[in-house]
Amino acid sequence: MSTNYYRVPSFNEMQVRREKLVTAVVCDLQMPTIHHHLNPNKHTMWDEFRLGSYIHLGKRSVGWRFVWNFHNDKYYHDAESLFEFIRAGLVLDEYGAMYTADEFIEMAMAWYPDGHIYNQEYVDRQREHNIGYYYGQDRFDTVRDNLVVCSSVDFL
What we know:
Strand content: 15-25%
Largest sheet: 7 strands, mixed
Number of domains: 1
Number of helices: 6
Radius of gyration: 20 Å
Strand order of the largest sheet: 5-4-1-2-3-7-6
Order of helices and strands: EHHHEEHEEHHEE
């Protein structure tokens, strides 16, 4: 059993995004402008509104340390910038439950502190007992600022 967690913008951040969207929609209704804004091959104002609005933070699973999704350092690159990013918004789990930033951070940091980490040591222990299927070393999790960081950015 596992649970995924997401950072969503705060109400104030969404208000700012909304104002930018409304300003962009109120445009000159001439054919070149309409074509530019409605062309499906272009990055649109709606894309801009939604950009970064549902960011996967990580996953908790029974027996494993909390695994963080660093998105190849796109939104944050260490514990300090991660926690700052989280505190600037709200946290939801995949079932829709909302958490304060501090509740979430406290839970994630306390989740199985001695739990498994998918790395060479884990693979070696499992191989001793002839159990499991193993991915290559490029899929191993890393530890950064005492946070377990998943090698994949597309895990759910």
